[in-house]
DNA sequence: CTAGTATGAATGAAGG
DNA sequence: CCTTCATTCATACTAG
């Protein structure tokens, strides 16, 4: 909505203080120092983004409420987070992944040779074009182009933690089973003892 | 020939009839300075939202097609609007209002978190679906929850035009009487003298 | 500080 | 009604 009805003021945003170490984090958060000073909106930590991205990459597109709960709970260890944050994250990530693809697909049109940066967000699709979706792409809903009921590796073992660079192919279509997924074991494998920074930054997504 | 989205049919219910030849809505009242340049989708003005919110607050949850007609007609004064916009608005608003009011007190109480959450904001549930299989008393889908045929004050008198700051939105459960509401009188109680902005922004909902 | 970008949050619009 | 997609708005973040 346009009219913000809560949260703090908007002017103070410019004068935010970045917790340049030596704060509550104790040791410095990795990456982009995500600890926002206020609680205006959720600012995911690098670890949270990492996990979420991995989940997405492994095929999770629309987590059920139950999954959202578990995810957010686990992620709360890395910092403040709410369920809705997880929900929104997946929504946005999926949407933008698709949007990006669609944009590319449009630029595939060779009727015009326009120079455009492929990252711009100011010229999207024509205003009214999504009504008659007889397009060629983005019509995943119609055809169930499912790969196979593969047991989507929910227990992503930790790995070199650097491969999340890019979500190249989003090939997947979450197979939710009527709101109740395979409530697999929920072994809270707390990896203790591993010498690591702050939280056990390993992608153990077995909590799903 | 301008691009007009003439896909105004086949919503789902018998609600909201078709535009039936335009109407008198012409203007582009930029209430929030963010008027969408093109067609795209309806961007309600502040006044429209105000009225709709008030209607909702006064108990209207699922307006009949007839009511939708009247509402959208009245609202067309503040800007371009169609019946389906009203229809969708109520549907979405109702659904999201409900979603928003969900407790986040699952069995998993993460109280063993000594994270100084200075966020005293309420935990709003993500606008997702039926989150939490919490056995809440909200499971009255089968039953028609009609209160008594009370004469829902449809003629909301205008008031200081600033009280819509936030509608608490607690107790309101549409009391429709078998699809036909009380077509109460239509007293045009014009409260003049109140300092008003541009349009006669007064909540005269007596047109219902 | 200003401009531009990335992305969290919100909500209009459908489909089922 | 419920679920999901698409689009838009607001804001955190970053570069100049």
Automatic annotation (TrEMBL), chains A, B:
<dbReference type="InterPro" id="IPR009057">
    <property type="entry name" value="Homeodomain-like_sf"/>
</dbReference>
<dbReference type="GO" id="GO:0005634">
    <property type="term" value="C:nucleus"/>
</dbReference>
<dbReference type="InterPro" id="IPR044555">
    <property type="entry name" value="WUSCHEL-like"/>
</dbReference>
<feature type="domain" description="Homeobox">
    <location>
        <begin position="35"/>
        <end position="100"/>
    </location>
</feature>
<dbReference type="GO" id="GO:0003700">
    <property type="term" value="F:DNA-binding transcription factor activity"/>
</dbReference>
<feature type="DNA-binding region" description="Homeobox">
    <location>
        <begin position="37"/>
        <end position="101"/>
    </location>
</feature>
<dbReference type="Pfam" id="PF00046">
    <property type="entry name" value="Homeodomain"/>
</dbReference>
<dbReference type="InterPro" id="IPR001356">
    <property type="entry name" value="HD"/>
</dbReference>
<protein>
    <submittedName>
        <fullName>WUSCHEL-related homeobox 5-like</fullName>
    </submittedName>
</protein>
<keyword id="KW-0371">Homeobox</keyword>
<keyword id="KW-0238">DNA-binding</keyword>
<dbReference type="GO" id="GO:0099402">
    <property type="term" value="P:plant organ development"/>
</dbReference>
<dbReference type="GO" id="GO:0003677">
    <property type="term" value="F:DNA binding"/>
</dbReference>
<keyword id="KW-0217">Developmental protein</keyword>
<comment type="similarity">
    <text>Belongs to the WUS homeobox family.</text>
</comment>
<keyword id="KW-0805">Transcription regulation</keyword>
<keyword id="KW-0804">Transcription</keyword>
<keyword id="KW-0539">Nucleus</keyword>
């Amino acid at each position: 909505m346009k009219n913000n009805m809560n949260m703090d003021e908007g002017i103070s945003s410019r004068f935010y203080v970045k917790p340049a170490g030596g704060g509550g984090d104790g040791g410095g958060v990795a990456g982009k120092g995500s600890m926002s000073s206020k609680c205006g909106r959720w600012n995911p930590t690098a670890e949270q983004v990492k996990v979420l991205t991995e989940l997405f990459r492994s095929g999770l597109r629309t987590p059920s409420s139950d999954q959202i709960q578990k995810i957010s709970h686990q992620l709360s260890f890395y910092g403040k987070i709410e369920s809705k944050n997880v929900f929104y994250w997946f929504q946005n990530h999926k949407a933008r992944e698709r949007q990006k693809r669609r944009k590319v697909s449009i630029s595939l049109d060779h009727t015009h040779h326009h120079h455009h940066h492929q990252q711009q967000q100011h010229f999207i699709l024509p205003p009214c074009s999504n009504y008659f979706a007889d397009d060629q792409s983005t019509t995943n809903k119609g055809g169930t182009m499912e790969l196979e009921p593969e047991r989507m590796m929910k227990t992503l073992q930790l790995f070199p933690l650097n491969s999340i660079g890019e979500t190249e192919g989003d090939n997947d279509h979450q197979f939710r089973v009527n709101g109740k997924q395979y409530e697999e074991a929920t072994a809270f494998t707390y990896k203790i003892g591993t010498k690591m920074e702050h939280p056990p930054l390993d992608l153990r997504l077995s909590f799903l």
